[in-house]
Structure formats: structure tokens, C-alpha cells
Amino acid sequence: MNFLTELGQYMVDNSSTMMALGIEHILMVLYAIGLSLLVGIPLGIIAAKFEKLAPVILSLTNILQLIPSLAMLAILLIYLGLGFQTMVIGLFFYSLLPIVRNTYVGLKEVDPGVLEAGTGIGMTPIQLLAKVQFPLSIPFLMAGLRVASVIAVAVACIGPYIGAGGFGKEIISGISLQSEIKIYAGAIPAALLAIIADLILGKIENRTKKRMA
Amino acid sequence: MIQLKNINKIYDDGFQALKDITLTFEEGKINVLIGPSGCGKTTTMKLLNRLTEHTDGEILIDDKNIKEMNPIELRRQMGYVIQSIGLFPHMTIYDNVAAVPKLLKWDKQRINQKVDELLNMVDLDPKTYKKRYPSELSGGQQQRIGVIRALAAEPSTILMDEPFSALDPISREQLQDELVHLQKSINKTIIFVTHDMDEAIKIADQIILMKDGEVVQQGAPNDILLNPVNDFVKEFIGSDRLEQAQGLPPLRSFIDEVYPSVTVSDSVADTIEIMVQNQKDCLPVVDEKENYVGSITLYQALANQQKTVEEMVDHSIDSYEETIKTEQVLQDNRLVIPVTSNQRFIGMLDQEKLLQTLHENFENKRGGQ
Q: What is the Cα–Cα distance from A155 to A164, expressed in whole angstroms?
């Protein structure tokens, strides 16, 4: 109990710092997810349209995912230097696989009858993609987005190692100062952030699913 | 008019799906392509909107070769209804029906009007249904939307690929009836693929029966039922339907040929005598050449014993020529039925014989089920 009040006291005293760290954490994730949507959706579409390229694209993104996060960030550090951007790029690589794979699967899962109807009434391949296939794959994309966001929130916690901010800063300085309160002050908001992202995106995912059923 | 001339379709693996098909689909009629699975009926249909390309031969629509037309535009000019219905699940009913008009960039007001008109045509209230999603409709309602989506851009030709076979039997019957009814008002050329002979007989103006990539027989449903060209056709139609189509024996087999008759020159008194002897209350009257002229009833004869038969003939009682179908006579529902052959009286229809046959037919059918 005593510990909890201490923690609360600490967070209130440092509210402006905590706020700044939180914003930085969220921004890193948002930039990375935005970037991976921008790159991942077209990659997923290409994989779905050109079956021969699918294994190449999917295994490349898979490999990116398999590299241990600290190793990946260290390698990026060599080329991109310290800072916020390096972290965004790292997170971007991490969220790429769920986005690409889910876009690909979503496009592949569209009922062939619906596609035949679309072609049969005279849609061009582009119209078919834009008006039928892609909208119908959105529930899958949303599921991918959810997974990607949760991963990104978690990985962002090691940001301070390469000079980026976020809640990780509190955790790491807590480790060096051997301050439990600092560790918790970083870990609890980071975990909450992941849970909130998961809940909100899960809700959106369900809503898109309901409309398609 | 849609013509197929010497169409061959050979797949890359060498399989020949269609062999030298030459066909004409009748304009403004329901043309049914039917046959066992793998006979090439769906392939033939898909050639028309170029979802499948033929290997050689030519397909002419209003004398234009479809290979020279843009496939996208060709498809927009043709309605397309498929077995799996294929409504766009993420679009409202309105957007589904409006799909082709939107592709053709009609203005909003015209699209709206058209959608309302079409929904009314299939008895779905536009106010209730326009904003709904396909998943909120029953299977039968969904396929109604499928059909009107095909009609939306006012195409002259509609392709239907087993559109009703995934529906429950009641909805299927209803939609078949509606299609026949609809066709009378919209008058499109419909190419309809099915494997269900009952469906084909019910809706078709022309049936094209296929087997192994070839057309086996082509003609009106009755033609095919009455004159199947070979054993395959007979088997495909099924013995039940063949018997039903061939119907009752000819009128001649129900005639009582020893039925008495009187001539116009006989006296009414003699006529009464004959009636009493034979226990008949109505006699046919013939002239000198034995041609039927009318009938005389006992009631009339008794009331006018002084007159001649010629004066008393009731001309309103018509005779039937023996060539007429027995079913036709049954429909007229008359008691006295004189039968003639080239106007010569040959006998009275024996109601008892006819009833006996009807009864036997009925028993057979019941036993067969």
C-alpha cells in the first residue's frame, strides 16, 4: 500500500515528464505503424496478385520479424545513428509482417463467387480490387494492425538503448539507479498502453467483421 | 441475336471441352443450356461474356464478333447471375443493385429511380430493403437481388449460371415463376444454365441439351419431350416425364363406334323409337353423306313429335375431330361428345372408357411414387 502511494506520488510529481515520455512512445508507434501500412498493404496486394512473388515477399518480412529486437536495433544504429528515427524504422520492420501477411490472406480469403460476380458484371481488375477485394479484406487487415501495434508498443520500450525516448527511459534508468518505483513508473504505463491499443483495435476489428458477415 | 459458329474450346492440357458447337440463341426468349456435369454448358455460357475464351470459331452478337469487342464493356452490356449469388457483402442492397449503373456513370437520380423500380418488380419494398446488407436477407431474397442487379443497366442479354440450384425448393419454385413472369414484361434474351430438367421444362422457350461438349438436341421443351433423338436424351429426360408428356391415348381409342345415329330425313317419331330401344337421351344427326350436322335430344323430340328431325337438330352441339388431343376434350368438360373424321360421324366418345383410363393413369402415378 505504502509502495503504491509512493508510486502515485512519484508519477504526480513527474507528471510532465511522464506525459512527454508517453507522447514520445505513442508517436514512435504511430509513425512506425503508419509507415508499415503504407508499405505493407501494397506489398500484400502484390503478393496476392502475383502468386510467384508471394513466397519471396512473405519470407522476407518473416525474416525481419525473426531478428531479435536488440540485434535489429543495434544493426540499424550502425547505419542510421542514434535517435527517434532509428527506432521508428526498427518498429516499422517489426510491424511489417502482420500487415503484409494479413493483407495477403484477407485478399485471398474473399469468396470466389463474389469475385466472379464482380468480374462478370464488368469491373476492371483495379475496380475489383478497390471496390470489392480490398474492402472485404479489411477485417483481416485490422487483425494484423492489432498484432502489429501491440508488438510495436512492447518493442518501443528498448528505445532508450539507441537514444530514443518513451516509457523505456524510466525503466532503464530505474534499472541503473536500482529504483523500483522508476521501473514501475515506466512498466505500468507501457503495459496499459499495449492493453488499451489491443482493446480499441479489437473493437474496431469486430465492428468491421460484423458488417461483412 | 447471338450466334455461335463452329466453336471449339481446347484447354492448355489438351482437354477439348467444346466440340464444333453451332448454335443460335433465340432473341427475347429463355434459352436453357442443360446437360450432365462436365458437358460444357457453363463453359458455353461463359464464352459469351468472355470469362472464358474460345479456341476457334466465332461468336456473333448482333453480327458483331465478340473477339473484337472490349471484354469489360461487353460484360457491362450483359447481365450475369451466378449460383453462389455473389452479392457484395460490404455493400447495401442499393449499392449492389446500382453496381453496374455506377460503373457506367449514370447520374444519381436515374440510378435511384432504377433501383426502386427493380426492387418493386421483385416485390421487395425499396424503403425497407435499400439500406440493408445482403446478410440480412434470406437466400431467396438475396438471389432476387442477384437477378435485379443483372437487370439494372438494362442489358439486352442476361446470362444465368444455375441461379436457383442453391436455394431451398420453395424459393426455387417461386423464383422460377417470377422469372417466367418477369420475362414476359422485360423481354430479354436469357441464357440459362441448369442441370435440372424440371426447371428447364418449366421455364424454357428453347432447350439445348448437351453432352461431352456437343449439342445433342435442341428445340422447344415439348419437341424434346415428344421426340427425343436418342437414348441419352430419353434417359436424361427420365421415363416419368416422357410418359407424362406423351399423355393419354388418342381420342379414337375412346369411341363407341356402334352408337346409333339418325339422318336428317328421319321422322321424330322414329328417332324416339331408336332412343328408347338403345336407352339414349341424345342422338347425333347426320346428312346423306354421313356428315355430322348436330344432335337431337329426347326432351326436344318428345315435345315436338310432329316435326321432322331436320327442324329439330340442335346445331349448337359441336363435334370433335378425331385428330384433336384427348386432353383438350377433357378440358372442355362436356357430356355429349360426337367424334368425326373429316366431318363424317364415326361414333360417340365413351365417357366410361375415358374415365377408366384416367383412373388407371392416376393409380400408376401414385404407385410409382
A: 12
Does A111 contact B84 at a Cβ distance shorter than 8 Å? yes
Are B19 and B48 contained in the same domain? yes
For each of the domains in chain A, give its residue range(s) and CATH number, in order of start: 14-212 (1.10.3720.10)
Residues of A in contact with B76 (CB under 8 A): 121-122
Q: Which residue of A has its CA nearest to B132?
A: A211
Same domain assignment for residues B77 and B54:
yes
Are the beta carbons of B210 and B216 closer than 8 angstroms?
yes
Q: Are B157 and B305 contained in the same domain?
A: no
From the list B49, B82, B90, the residue facing A136 with the nearest CB is B90
Residue B369 included in any domain: no
Q: Read off the CATH number of the domain in which B348 is found.
A: 3.10.580.10
Number of domains in chain B: 2
CB contact, 8 Å: A136 with chain B? yes
In a domain, B272, yes or no: yes
Interchain CB contact of B149 with A (< 8 Å): yes
Nearest-CA residue of chain A relative to B153? A121
B90 to A135: CB separation less than 8 angstroms, yes or no: yes
Alpha helices in B187-220 (DSSP H): 197-203
Best of B48, B77, B80 to disrupt the A interface (most A CBs within 10 Å) is: B80
Are residues B237 and B261 both part of a single domain?
A: no
Range of the domain at B133: 2-246
Q: Domain holding B13: CATH number?
A: 3.40.50.300
Q: What is the pLDDT along chain B (369 residues), one digit of tens a residue?
A: 899 999 999 999 989 999 999 999 988 999 999 999 889 999 999 999 999 999 989 999 988 999 999 999 999 999 999 989 999 999 999 999 999 999 999 999 999 999 999 999 888 999 999 999 999 999 899 999 999 999 999 998 999 999 998 889 988 998 999 899 888 888 899 999 999 998 998 899 999 999 999 999 999 988 888 888 999 998 888 877 777 766 777 777 788 888 888 888 888 888 888 888 888 888 888 888 888 888 888 888 888 877 888 887 888 888 888 887 777 777 777 777 888 888 888 888 887 888 887 777 777 666 544
Does the residue B111 lie in any domain? Answer: yes
Strands (E), A140-195: none
Find which of B82, B84, B88 to mutate to test the A interface (most A CBs within 10 Å of its CB).
Answer: B88
Q: Both B57 and B184 in a single domain?
A: yes
Query: Shortest Cα distance from B197 to chain A (angstroms)?
Result: 24
> Is residue B260 assigned to a domain?
yes
Please judge whether B86 and A127 are an interchain contact, meaning their C-beta atoms are less than 8 angstroms apart: no
On whether both B283 and B162 belong to a single domain, the answer is no
The pTM is what?
0.73
Find the DSSP H helices in chain B.
41-48, 71-76, 93-97, 99-103, 108-121, 126-129, 139-151, 169-186, 197-203, 221-226, 231-237, 239-246, 268-278, 298-303, 309-312, 326-332, 351-368
Q: Do A213 and B83 touch (CB under 8 A)?
A: no
Chain CA centroid to CA B331, Å: 19
Distance CA B279, CA A59 (A): 100
Of B188, B221, B246, which closes a domain? Answer: B246
Torsion, Cα A24 A26 A28 A29, to 10 degrees, reads 170
**Chain B touched by A122 (CB under 8 Å):** yes
Partner-chain contact B87 A135, CB within 8 Å: no
Interface predicted TM-score (ipTM): 0.78
